[in-house]
Write a structure and sequence with these properties.
Blueprint (H helix, E strand, L loop, with lengths): L2 E4 L6 E2 L1 H9 L12 H4 L3 H12 L5 H17 L6 E2 L3 H10 L3 E5 L4 H11 L8 E2 L11 H10 L7 E5 L2 H10 L3 E4 L15 E3 L5 H8 L2
Parallel strand pairs: 1-4, 1-6, 4-5, 6-7, 7-8
Antiparallel strand pairs: 2-3
Helix pairs in contact: 1-3, 1-4, 3-4, 7-8
C-alpha cells in the first residue's frame, strides 16, 4: 500500500504559540514571541537556549536539561490553547485515505504529547500510526522512525513519501530513500527550497495529486 507520512509541528499544525508559551513559563521572564516560531519548531531545547541567551545569562546545557522537564509539563498542561491545524490539512488526509493511501505521523515531539495534541484537536483517528521522538531509541533524521510510521500504518516504505517542513525532514527522506515534500506555509516560507526536496507544497489542496505523481 502507498503511504504518506506527515510531520506534525509546522506541517499539519501551527503549534508555535503554545510551544513558546511553555518555554516562557520556564524562564525568569517572557522573552520569546511570535517571531521565534521557527525556533519553536526545532524543539524545546532550542527555545530554551534562545531564551537563556536573550536573558544574557551565563548558561550551559545543564541549565537546558534542568528546565526541559518543566517545559514539557507546562506544554502538556496547555497543549492546544492556540494551536491550529493548517487550512486544508485534514481534507487532504481524508482525500488520501479515499484514494487508498495509508497515512501516519512521524514527529520529533514526545509520543505522549503528540497523542495528546492530536486527540485535543479531534484528529487522532484519521492516522493509522504515530511515531514520536521517544517511540524508538532514535528519532528523525534517522530512518528507523519513518520506516516504523509507514509499516505500522500498513504501508510499504518503497511506495511512501514524507511531508514536512524542516531540514530534519529533508534528511529523513534521504536516509529512508523516499521523496519529501516540504511545505512553504511555515515560518521559513519558500526558504525550505534550499534543502532540495522532491517537491514544495504550497497548499494542502495539492497534496493528493502530488502524492499520486511522486508515488506513481
Amino acid at each position: 500500500m502507498r503511504a504518506v507520512v506527515f510531520d506534525l509541528d509546522g506541517t499539519l499544525a501551527d503549534t508555535s504559540a503554545d510551544l513558546l508559551a511553555a518555554a516562557n513559563a520556564c524562564l525568569p521572564r517572557a522573552v520569546l514571541g511570535p517571531e521565534d516560531a521557527l525556533t519553536a519548531f526545532h524543539g524545546g531545547r532550542a527555545m530554551l537556549r534562545l531564551g537563556f541567551t536573550r536573558l544574557g545569562h551565563d548558561w550551559g546545557e545543564a541549565d537546558v536539561d534542568a528546565a526541559y522537564p518543566r517545559l514539557l509539563e507546562a506544554y502538556g498542561a496547555a497543549i492546544a490553547v492556540h494551536t491550529r491545524l493548517y487550512p486544508g490539512a485534514m481534507e487532504a488526509v481524508e482525500a488520501l485515505r479515499r484514494r487508498g493511501f495509508a497515512v501516519s505521523i512521524c514527529t520529533n515531539k514526545p509520543e505522549a504529547l503528540a497523542e495528546g495534541l492530536l486527540r485535543a484537536l479531534g484528529v487522532r483517528d484519521a492516522f493509522g500510526a504515530l511515531v514520536g521522538a521517544d517511540t524508538l531509541p532514535v528519532r528523525k533524521p534517522d530512518a528507523a522512525p519513518y520506516r516504523a510510521a509507514v509499516e505500522r500504518a500498513g504501508g510499504l516504505v518503497g511506495r511512501s513519501m514524507l511531508v514536512g517542513d524542516t531540514e530534519t525532514d529533508a534528511k529523513t527522506g534521504v536516509a529512508a530513500g523516499v521523496p519529501v515534500a516540504l511545505v512553504t506555509f511555515g515560518p521559513e516560507g519558500r526558504g525550505v527550497e534550499r534543502f532540495a526536496p522532491a517537491a514544495l507544497l504550497e497548499r494542502f489542496e495539492d497534496l493528493p495529486g502530488l502524492a499520486q505523481q511522486l508515488l506513481a
